[in-house]
Amino acid sequence: MRRCVLFFSAGMLAVFGTVLGAPAKTAALPKGRSVITNGAFDQSKTGPVGWMTRDSGGFGDFKLTPPLRGVGPSVLTVTCKKTCERPWYLELRQRVGDQLLKGERVFISFEYKVSKGYAFHFYWQKETQPWPKMLSLRLAEPVNTWNKVQVAVPVDEDLAAGASALTFHLAEELGSVQLRNIHVIAVSPRVDPKSLPSTVEPVFGGDFYDKDWRNAALTRIAQIRQSPVRVTVHDGTEPVSGAEVRLSQLDRPFSIGIEAKAPLLVRDGFIHSRLDLLNERLGEARVHLPAYRKKVLASGMFDTVTLEAALMWQEHDLWGKDLAKHAVRLARANGLTVHGHALLCPAFEFLPDPARYRQMEAKALSSRLLLHIRSMTQEYAGLVDRWEVLFGPLAYDEVYDAAGVDLLPSAFVAANQGSAETPLLLSDVRGLMEPTSNHISETVELVQWLELEKARVDGLVLDARLTQPYTAPQAMDERLQVVGRELAGMPVYIASLELDVAREAAQAHMLRDLLISFFSHEHVLGVSFANIWEAEAPKPSAALYRADMTPKPSGEMLEKLLDETWRTKAGLTTAERGEAWIRAFHGNYDVQVTVNGRTVKELTELSIDDFENSWRALCLGGFIMGREAAKRMLP
């Protein structure tokens, strides 16, 4: 198993963000102890006392301006005259001079003004390689006006004096920034964190603008998702130069799924009062339902469909049974895999008659639940390709508290009895989104216990429904690495991926980094998107497509990523030895070989093993079909 590059210590908490827009009057500073010196820049010699200023090669300069007539704060102006891939080559830095205790919160406040087109990074980070980030900000707007950053960051471990630092990385863009009134205050754990003001969108676990992390992840993608291929064309034993070979990738061994609402897929699907709210939400956008259906079922963008609620027990009994099979058959008729969500969520509120089930004795309750699981797997055998057996068992526990913990492995046994050939999955709803890795570790332990209890667990589903505070891709990497290591590469599916970000460009940028993270892990076999259409989405700002089904920047990014960046389409011409080389993504391919104006077309699967064999044997078996056919066309 290849290991990802980590940019922070296990369990370390970090925050990244962008400024929401400071109000005219921001909140007063909280009570606590100041842990930096000279945040007002009112002490100076050759530069501001207590601060390290660095210019590693003529990238810019620092200028300290005292208050006019002694009134107001001093201002430090930094001008970037030359950009650098390593923006810390122009840097303002100070180590935190006091001990910080686990459970405290570090409240950071400063004011800045940037020129048009300029951007800078601010970090609170540990002073040990690889300098893990506890707070990460990239600030580029608004311009030519003073703005205030205020944010409180939890201290996740004891930090000695000097063990962390504030640092401004200033060489990313040409222009200037003015800084003033920097405060860093250690706040007691007894202070309610909700009382601490914030003017940023926080993210846990890293930095969406970390180029080093992104480059490392892209390198992993190239290593695990692509391989070099040599194509050869011969006439008997003689190589054929000038043969034209065209490769067109049809799919990939990485699922791109959509979580669709059955009433949106099936004509006249609003058959129950429980669906009235969704119907009202559509409003005038209802005329674009055909475009939505085409995108989901027939665009080729998605290869897997999950019915959002229609197979959940309570909804299935109320209305799902009248729509689910129709929707499933539509999906299968269009060549899509069907992911079953979900056989059991162990909370009474998701059962058909919560009050009645709450009154059941443990044995009767368990028997009824297991009967439902067997019945559903039998009813949908051959229609559902994989099932989530348990949904959120660490988030919802009241049902197995009542029925007994043996219900959990028994649920997998019952599902296996109902459909022995169908992969069975455990779904976790919080592990990727929690501030720390504790929950994902508990999920791993649950899977290991289920396996000890002889439950067949074929894979893990991890929800990624992101809203503020966000989880950064570095944190995702760490948790996916834990799963891959502790569960021996068990298949992982990312579910319910949506990113609720007000600024559309930021949503596209952040979503791309999350997809890069997921795609860079060998044991992650797919991603499924939720609420892609503004008209259906409870949070329209999380959607990928507008109400008229035109793509937002995030939708455009996704389409380009899937159709161009992560798909191989290439035309090759064999050289003198009859060879042509390419580095290609794994998947199924349409292959055309043209010799002397005659073309033969074949389909072949280029799997990881095929690629590795072709590399060793210097001839890809899948292309032999095209090669032999081409030989028959030669005069």
Can you characterise this structure?
By secondary structure, the chain is α/β, with parallel strands linked by helices. The two termini are 49 Å apart. The chain is globular, with a radius of gyration of 28 Å. The longest helix is centred in the middle third of the chain and has 21 residues, at 313-333. The strands form 6 sheets. Strands 3-6-11-8-9-1-13-24 form an 8-stranded mixed sheet. Strands 18-19-20-21-22-23-25-26 form an 8-stranded parallel beta barrel, surrounded by 4 helices. Strands 2, 4, 5, 7, 10 and 12 form a 6-stranded antiparallel sheet that branches. Strand 25 (492-499), helix 12 (504-519) and strand 26 form a beta-alpha-beta unit. Mean pLDDT is 87; it is low at 1-25 and 608-635.
Helix content: 25-40%
Give the mean pLDDT.
87
Secondary-structure content class: alpha/beta
Count every beta strand, where a strand is a DSSP E run of 2 or more residues: 30
In whole angstroms, the N-to-C terminal distance is 49 Å
Largest sheet, order of strands side by side? 3-6-11-8-9-1-13-24
Spans of at least 5 consecutive residues with low confidence: 1-25, 608-635
Summarize the topology.
Elements: E1 15-17, E2 33-34, E3 52-55, E4 60-65, E5 75-80, E6 90-95, E7 105-114, E8 120-126, E9 133-139, E10 147-154, E11 164-169, E12 175-187, E13 203-204, H1 211-225, E14 226-232, E15 234-235, E16 238-239, E17 244-249, E18 255-260, H2 262-265, H3 276-282, H4 289-298, E19 304-307, H5 313-333, E20 337-340, H6 354-358, H7 362-379, E21 386-391, H8 398-403, H9 407-418, E22 424-428, H10 438-452, E23 459-466, E24 470-471, H11 473-486, E25 492-499, H12 504-519, E26 524-530, H13 553-565, E27 569-573, E28 579-585, E29 587-595, E30 598-606, H14 608-617, H15 621-633
Parallel strand pairs: 1-9, 13-24, 18-19, 18-26, 19-20, 20-21, 21-22, 22-23, 23-25, 25-26
Antiparallel strand pairs: 1-13, 2-12, 3-6, 4-5, 5-12, 6-11, 7-10, 7-12, 8-9, 8-11, 14-28, 15-16, 17-27, 17-29, 29-30
